[in-house]
Fold:
Amino acid sequence: TAGMTPKITVEETAKLNRLSKEEHDLLLEVVLQIYAKYDAILTKNMFRELPVIVTDIKKEYKSEKKSSNSRLSDLIGGIFAIWSLQSKTEHCRSLIRPLPAQIVAIVRLLVLDKPPPTGRWSCLESWFRSSKRIDASHFAQIKTGQGKSVILGVLATVLSIAGFNVDCVCYSAYLSDRDNLHFAKVFELFDVNQMVSYGTFQQLSERLVNSEGNVRDLVAAILNPTTGASGAAFKSGKKPKQAKHILLIDEVDVFFSRSFYGETYDPALTLNHDKIAHLQHRVWAMREGDLKCILPALKETDAYKELLLDYAGVANILNFQIAKMCSDLEAWKKGGSDEDFHAYKIIDEKVAYKNGVAYDSKISFGYITLWTYFYEVESKRVPAAALEEHLGLLIKCGQFSYAEIPKRYELILGVTGTLVPEMSDGPQPLGCFEQSIIRDEYKITGRTELPSVFGERNLTFLENLHVSVNKNENDFNNAIGLAVGEALNGRAILVFFESEARLQAWKDSEYGQRVPPGAMDSITSDTRNIDMKVLKATHSGSITLLSREHGRGLDFHCTDKTVEQRGGLHVVQTFLPEDLSEEIQIRGRTARQKNKGSFQIILNVQDLDKFGITAEEIELKEKGIFVPVISV
Structure:
């Protein structure tokens, strides 16, 4: 089934999702109509200017001569045509055609394969003209390497043309920026730039919280009305009618994982004052003494007493923050190397903390970050001006749960590579916790599983053969070294580690040091030329070390004939993830789009204690007893 046709893709989709014959026939009809429109536009407009073609597409969409479903199908075909035409460059004259699975996914997400009046688009158009809410959120699973970002880009364009504001959210700023840039020209041509936003969950929260007024301005006005901060940050009265919002989620399993579901967005403002700066310098000067004596000493100073007089109306808030400032100094001094606030680097003369696959200087750990700046200035790694920007008391403006974000939207659509089991009787990639959130809290019931456009994956991986548990750190490092040695045979190797610290530890080990100079590279959270390193990583003889955060989203497409002849890209996972979905994503970095590939898991027995895995179970594994084989 390599190179699936639209007809075969629809047939396989119907089987996977148990569609009726009527649903199959209507799905095929809509998909073929989209392809027909796509081909017609390319045939007639290959040499016309793109803005002229877009004008014709939008004009035809607004015409009342066809049904809403037909007009939408033509619009989707037109958007794909523009996407293909604008992808042509001087270096690449060939057109990139949409994959059948991409079109089927969009049709299913918009429920165009349902006859009116139950078809969502007719509902959306009437809903857009009124205030009616529909409960038709839908997720689709599409295999890795088949263009989830293209699906989201076309969906965003379609929905924004219809008058909706669309937020595309992703866990990674790098991936979000990359996908936005990929579709920026299409958004510009259809004049929907202002209606489509890409970003991380934190960036999305910032926009939502301040959508009706700047919350920091409001808090600043409450703290000190005489400073001139706008007390009208939130105006009463009738609000102008705004376009309804739709949320598009990239990799739904990441959003519904525990790390996001239990986290909050905490906007804060910095209250600056000369007396506050004086107190903070004084605290730093006293840091080597008895930390418990610092706060009582501050309260006896003229600066402290005058500050509370200046802000008499909010003295309790300032008292609390000054006490917090002193306690955070103790936490900063006593915190171990495994604390999140120690995972930072100096980038562009600023303290940048790890955020997903990158480092971000906008992230703050409150006063702990302040003391970090004091320390780095004293160490002469950052200029004094950087510290001056962080002096002040941090006033929290509120606490907003990430879990509440979806509830702000009229509709949620998402794509992921890990929504349903890989096999009909296989384990669920999403745990009961995540599934209950999707089903019970957000009422998302629509699901579609898409087949692979490229047929069965050409992946070598049998769990009872390609998973090893090593009894100590030395054997663990040696096993990784042996796997890396495959590069000497002409293959390309990706090795994923649980953390950057573990990555560096193996790199510094005697086995890491044995790798020939120039053969090994790393992709970490402060890597800036990621795209170039991803391209290089699939070349014959290349060894690339990565942290687990890079196990999804990066497209390692191998075109090296030598690598393909030797078995394809080899991926090594050196830790046991808590969720099967993460393993599926890492495994999906290889054997993409008909390419060969192999996967291997190398574990250290000491890392399995936290999972409650016993020595007896490991012994059974070594004997080959009670070990299921995963077919992929």
